[in-house]
Structure prediction request, 135 residues.
Amino acid sequence: MKPGTETFVKPGDELPPLTIPITRTLIVAGAVASRDYQDVHHDAELAREKGSPDIFMNILTTNGLVGRYITDHFGPRAVLRRVAIRLGAPNHPGDTMVLTGTVTEVDGDTAHVRVVGANGLGHHVTGSVTVEVPR
Prediction:
């Protein structure tokens, strides 16, 4: 193989897990930062009135955490090209989410990573991220 043509990752590579404590502050701060003022993201009493046991994290905060997970792993030159996620079990205060990732495909400087974020209720988030790491 010529120097400089080595792949930076290969299909099947697993990213180290990232453990994120789900705090009330994280949920509320993420909602406010993304201008999501839905009461279920900051008001426990109103969230309970709507059938939830407590406030829960919004998708924009989850999306940001998934992006952080990928860029923390691939480094400061990483560029997120596509993030496609789906939410499942809610993230409530007091739980912990563990993000894991597996490289599914590599094409030059671009990797496709399957991401799962699990909490005590199940899979909070599943999806895929396309990341480019220029050399």
